[in-house]
Hints:
Order of helices and strands: EHEHHEEHEHEHEEHEHEHH
Oligomer: single chain
Number of domains: 1
Strand order of the largest sheet: 2-1-5-10-9-6-7-8
Distance between the termini: 34 Å
Amino acid sequence: MENRFINNKIALLYHNDYNKYDLGTSHPLISDKPRKSLEFFKEKNIFDYLKIFQAKKAKEEDILKVHNPRYVERVKQLSKTGGMLSLDTPAPKGIYDIALLVTGGTKLAGEKLFKGFNCAINPLAGFHHASESSSSGFCFFNDIAIVIENLRERYNLERFQIIDLDVHHANGTQEIYYDDPSVLNISFHQDGRTLYPGTGSIEKIGRDSGEGFTVNLPFPPGTGSGDYILAFDTIIPYLTEEFNPQILIYQCGVDTHHSDPLANLCLTYQTYYYLANRIMSLSKKTCNKLLVLFGGGYNSRSSVISYFNIMCGLLDKKEYLSEEMKQDIFASDINPLLEDFKSIYSPFWDF
């Protein structure tokens, strides 16, 4: 029988202080979601498949590989006084050290892929709204870019692929890598004309030598699982196999679920199983190195169940939880969108 995981384990980075990433009792970010997720995994006997490592803080020099010194200093000062990083992102006292900790968790998870594991997870991660010199959207440091730059330097990697399925566009990551052909940055998200951060149009494809390596697919509000899976299967496998990444980074935000209070897509629990299972298969076909970053999700119960289904997908376990399928409200719109996508990206990729 094939040994799907080296050591038969997935590496998972965690620290009790993750739950201190708390932006206030009235803020939509759920501070205890990492703890609740792990408790549910344990209840469902997922822990037998995990090797837990304690996250450690990233160093300031790691942060400075992506963010400019003036921005880092601003976060440090806000961490001392408290205040607002942006209109939607409070900066409570002590947040600098907590942000370093969660970033360090992603950095170490990436390194585990070169130390005997072919899948590693950080359950508080995927802070894709942070750009080089600013941020919002509940993010402080872009751990996706920071782990890329660490692995680029440490292991001389040349091809990084991001599959970002959070409902919000990965605007910070896009800004950082917009002209970089070594990073294939794919973002599936709700149309920015209807949701924060208002970016991610299908025409934004990269710049100069990076043209074609920024990939955006904006879904209309109400899109459900059927159309979403159709789009995934139409686009993701072809790009992944042609690009042939040396590491695959899966930002698996579950704020695409129909119960999420901040967005308007309509995915169901079982969709997350399918997507994770397909992405694991693509990793096995290419680099066999999959970094999984639990992104957004603002309904506590549905987020934990969705993350569990992602774990089942990664493990190829059929014990995932299901619910009634939601109808695609705008089902007739998806095929023209996919045709537009192919027209825009066919000069760069073989569909």
